[in-house]
Amino acid sequence: MNYDNPNINERGMMYGKWMTAPDTWTISFGGGVYCYLIIGGERALLFDTAYGIGNLREFVEGITDKPLIVVNSHGHFDHTGGNPWWDEVYAGPGAEAGMKKAFSPEMQEDFNKKPHPDYKVNTVREGHIFDLGGRELEVIEIPAHHESSIALLDRKGRAIYSGDELEAGQVLLFVRNELLPLKEVVQNHMNNMKKLKAHWDEFDTIYPAHNGPGLYKSYIDDYITLSENILAGRAQIMPNLAGFGWAPSVEGTGFASLGALERAQYGGASFIYVKE
């Protein structure tokens, strides 16, 4: 069956949307990948573009007609796949190395057919301000899960948008461009969480890219404690990898080639990493 709307398939609408605060929308793809549309007085900002399936631009323009700034939380394709609906995007340092590389030949073919597969990438660094008109979003560099990870601090909306560096399921520490020793990447993550905690009085809610948008900020403390426990050699190690949105084993997947993986937990925080 053919559908007139490019964002409808046999299961229904590919994208979901809901308003979490005034002029703040969560856009969900497949129920497990979240993008965020943040609207100011003059411009709007889209944080991440999922896999790019369907026509994300048409979907976003059905919510707002304001000029749009596209920003990626990091360079993984499940956050950058929809970028070529626009002619330029913004991302953290190092994102450009892999952000146009799809997860499968089929996805790559679809990517290459979009209007702007050679879109321009503008690198943003710590402290960069996206001014939407009466609403400013500040870039905070938080690379651990990926070298290019950034968060956005929305003081007016009292929110932090964290990408894949902080969520309720698990943070993966082995899908970087360059794999780091466990203690080094955990130390980096802890330093980043302390950087976010320095803004404790400026936000109330964390919006991650996977596994449940709208987290209370105590997750930051849980991740700091988890990191401290790993560095001290006293972390709680789980009997398998099973987590929210993650299978007990990666046997038979592309991740299996990395060797044995391990899950450590504390409170609401969880890391999966290559076992050393």
Brief sketch in words of this structure:
The radius of gyration is 18 Å and the shape is globular.
Essential attributes:
alpha+beta; Metallo-beta-lactamase, Chain A
Task: Describe the overall structure.
The protein has 276 residues and is an alpha+beta fold. It has five helices and 19 strands. The chain has a single domain (8-274), classed as 4-Layer Sandwich (Metallo-beta-lactamase, Chain A), CATH 3.60.15.10. Helix content is 18%, strand content 29%.
How is this fold's topology laid out?
Layout: E1 8-9, E2 12-13, E3 15-21, E4 24-29, E5 33-39, E6 44-47, H1 56-61, E7 68-71, H2 77-80, E8 88-91, H3 105-112, E9 120-123, E10 129-131, E11 136-141, E12 150-154, E13 159-163, E14 171-172, H4 182-197, E15 205-208, E16 215-216, H5 218-232, E17 236-237, E18 261-266, E19 269-274
Parallel strand pairs: 6-7, 8-9, 13-15, 14-19
Antiparallel strand pairs: 1-2, 3-4, 4-5, 5-6, 10-11, 11-12, 12-13, 15-16, 17-18, 18-19
Helix pairs in contact: 4-5
Counting DSSP H or I runs of 4 or more residues, the number of helices is 5
End-to-end Cα distance, whole Å, is 50 Å
Percent helix range: 10-25%
Total beta strands: 19
